[in-house]
Design a protein that fits this description.
There is one protein chain. The protein is an alpha+beta fold. Helix content is 42%, strand content 23%. The strands form 3 sheets. The chain has a 3-stranded antiparallel beta sheet, with helices on one face. It has a 3-stranded antiparallel beta sheet with strand order 3-4-9, with no helix packed on it. Strands 6-7-8 form a 3-stranded antiparallel beta sheet, covered by helices on one side.
Length: 171
């Protein structure tokens, strides 16, 4: 019985290590690429949202990047496999096998727990109809271009003068 528990514990560590490995590759690729496809799973898509101004609240929001997951992007573009090939100094077929093994570990964990943390990328869950549901994590790591820029409100000058006049009635 003890040996069996040790085997299960070892397998959990291996699964966890494989998941960490693939998540690290995806995050690294998303620094430079707009899309990273996980073969037969879908693709993580980095979208740039433009700066916005809300006329009602007079608030400004800087341009920023958001991370989404598109389950229809299932055909591999080779980007993730190429990253594995370079990182582990293996040929392309061996890199494909490594990606498949890591994705299988992720799939197994998802089947068992129904939700898997992908670190700073976010979480991926299995829906009622076996569909993948992605919830992005804190996307600030994607926004190095706008580091330090935060949303702010700026009251227009005529409105500010009107508010001051109401607050200080003439004597």
């Amino acid at each position: 019985v003890c040996a069996n528990k040790h085997f299960v514990f070892s397998m959990n560590i291996i699964t966890f290590a494989r998941m960490l490995k693939i998540v690290a590759h995806i995050a690294r690729l998303l620094w430079t690429e707009d899309c990273v496809i996980l073969p037969e799973w879908g693709g993580f898509v980095r979208q740039t949202q433009p700066a916005t101004y809300n006329k009602v609240t007079h608030s400004f929001c800087p341009a920023h990047k958001e991370l989404t997951f598109n389950a229809t992007l299932r055909h591999t573009d080779g980007l993730l496999t190429e990253a594995y090939r370079k990182a582990y100094s293996v040929d392309y077929p061996q890199a494909q096998l490594l990606v498949e093994e890591d994705l299988q570990a992720l799939r197994n964990q998802l089947q068992t727990a129904h939700q898997v943390s992908l670190g700073r990328l976010g979480t991926i869950a299995l829906g009622d109809e076996e569909q993948l549901i992605f919830t992005p994590g804190d996307e600030s790591w994607l926004n190095a271009d706008s580091y330090g820029l935060q949303a702010f409100t700026c009251v227009p000058l005529p409105l500010l003068e009107e508010q001051q006049a109401v607050a200080q009635p003439e004597a």
